[in-house]
Specification:
The chain has nine helices and 16 strands. It is of the alpha/beta class. It has a six-stranded mixed sheet, with helices on both faces. The two termini are about 30 Å apart.
Length: about 325
């Protein structure tokens, strides 16, 4: 995949509302298969499209990119051995040790590309319409759904959901929203009304752990307010929670089946996939994984010199 195709795929992922990281090689020290300007996309699941380097660089960039997506903060990576750079590493740059027989090095800028916040407002009251307008003014993607039409299909695990049906089939709307497990779920209504709704759902088997995630009433407590001010209070709470990193973003959690297992090369300390794609060796009942033939050969020559391998998921 060339650079133009990478950017086209980035546009497609953005239109679909999927988070990913864009990795760009900004400097290289030859010999290295990565070239200045080479680009790649890394998804939350760790799938890479494009090209940033060979077998030494790729797993390290994928690992760092997934962390960049989860944290929402860019990183400038320096891939190589610290001995190559000495004290010349600028402040703020992350050195990622890799052991590559070519002795090349790369500087890779990894930036997160996160979808616009998605707010789903269930209801048709004036407050619901005001809240949708305010969210859109912030550049958020606001979806306004009438209560009877609302289903889990309207929500993803990254969505924020505000149920503002005001007595019109609240129970069904809240149950649908709980089933989707959004990052935020708030109910517009009094404490008394909220307690009655949650109690009703508890009696019908909705787990207490799920019910405890519902914020009732939604929004900052401003006392007696107008419907427009309630909308401001709800949006203010959402902005506050997002800024504090307090939303439970389910899409950033491991995908079904869990992330691929990883192992640490016992020779160079590089993280590599713990599968058939890495050079591996079974010894005394343990499996060892290596980034390259050189590390495997060093281990075979003197196994006692290296500690037991570490594998993690």
């Amino acid at each position: 995949m060339d650079g133009r195709a990478v950017l086209e795929q980035a546009g497609e992922l953005t239109r679909r509302g999927q988070a990913f990281a864009l990795a760009t090689v900004v400097w290289r020290q030859g010999p290295s298969s990565g070239q200045q300007g080479s680009r790649a996309i890394i998804t939350e699941a760790g799938e890479l499209s494009g090209w940033i380097g060979g077998a030494c660089a790729e797993p390290a960039v994928i690992r760092e990119a997934r962390e960049v997506i989860a944290e929402g903060k860019a990183r400038l990576l320096l891939l190589g051995t610290r001995e190559q750079f000495g004290d010349a590493v600028p402040e703020g740059m992350t050195v990622v040790p890799i052991s590559c027989q070519s002795e090349g090095a790369l500087e890779v800028y990894v930036e997160p590309v996160l979808p616009a916040p998605h707010l789903v407002i269930v209801g048709r009251s004036p407050m619901a319409h005001t809240l949708a307008g305010l969210a859109s003014a912030l550049g958020w993607r606001a979806t306004l759904v009438d209560g009877p039409d609302f289903t889990t299909a309207d929500v993803s695990e990254r969505s924020m959901v505000v149920v503002a049906t005001q007595g019109h089939d609240d129970e069904r709307a809240l149950q649908q929203a709980l089933a989707a497990r959004p990052a935020y779920l708030g109910l517009v209504g009094s404490h008394r009304r909220g307690a009655a709704l949650l109690g009703y759902l508890a009696e019908r088997g909705v787990p207490r752990a799920q019910l405890d995630t519902v914020r009732v009433p939604a929004g900052l407590d401003l006392g007696r307010t107008t419907h427009a001010e309630i909308a401001v209070a709800v949006l203010a709470e959402l902005v506050q929670l997002r800024a504090a990193g307090a939303l439970r973003v389910g899409a950033a959690m491991p995908q079904a089946g869990g992330p691929p297992a990883e192992a640490v090369d016992p020779v160079c300390g590089m993280t590599v996939p713990a599968d058939a794609s890495s050079r591996n060796l079974a010894r005394d009942g343990d499996a060892y994984y290596f980034c390259c033939a050189g590390c495997l050969r060093k281990f075979e020559e003197d196994p006692a010199a290296y500690g037991k391998k570490e594998t993690r998921c």
